[in-house]
Predict the structure.
Amino acid sequence: MTRVLRYAAASVAIACIVLALKLGAWWLTGSVALLADALESVVNVAAAGAALLAVRYAALPPDANHPYGHAKAEYFSAVLEGALIVLAAIAILHEAWGAFQAPRAPEQAVAGLLVSAVATAINAGWAWLLFREGRRARSPALLADARHLLADVVTSAGVLIGVGAVAATGLLWLDPLLAALTALNILWSGSKLMRESVGGLMDEAVEPGLLARIRGAVSTSAEGAIEAHDLRTRHAGRLTFIEFHLVVPGQMTVDQAHAICDRIEAALKAEIEGATITIHVEPEGKAKHHGVLVL
């Protein structure tokens, strides 16, 4: 089992634990804001399960039907998570509207808040670990899970403060107001997550910083060539696909041109984990005098 798969499996277990704690906090208090927080954790459980399945599928090697591998499966998990967040937000808004019409004071507020605080602390620690592992492994599924958990932590912290304020002041309308604000917050995070995941499915180019690193690696490792042009890039989960045309002197032998390509590929793979490179060699008459000039 890979590290990414282990983290994805652990996320399911932790999401279930946090959900149980948050449901317990709502059961103790009857607070609609804490119910909203628990409903978001229901999404966490479903999303963690989807991420686990996506990571397992993405880890499959290339086959005849998927010669480029299965890494994009993780983007589908992230899109699904975003959709689940939107559904949770709608459910929370429905509960908040009902509570606005018939507000009630929270019961056993101190006990409920303590239970919710423990759940929030667990989520915060796990979100930090998922961010670290997701960035290291370049896993869209783990990063999506981490971003959702971080949004959940921020939301939960606000709910804890608000429910405490309701118990201290007796202002019952604060409870449904906090639930509605929770819904709007997770709705924003869900829409952002879906936009980023759709970008991956649409083969967006790599970010400018990474593109500069690619151009630098090609420029400094292609000694003997003239230029590289028509550089194209895209992400597919943890993989980065790079392709370009490499212009070499017309009299250069195939062996010499191949040696340059091997050197460029080695430099790119050393610079970028998961790089998959395609190089089309052309004679100097095809030079466009733009793109990446060889140093």
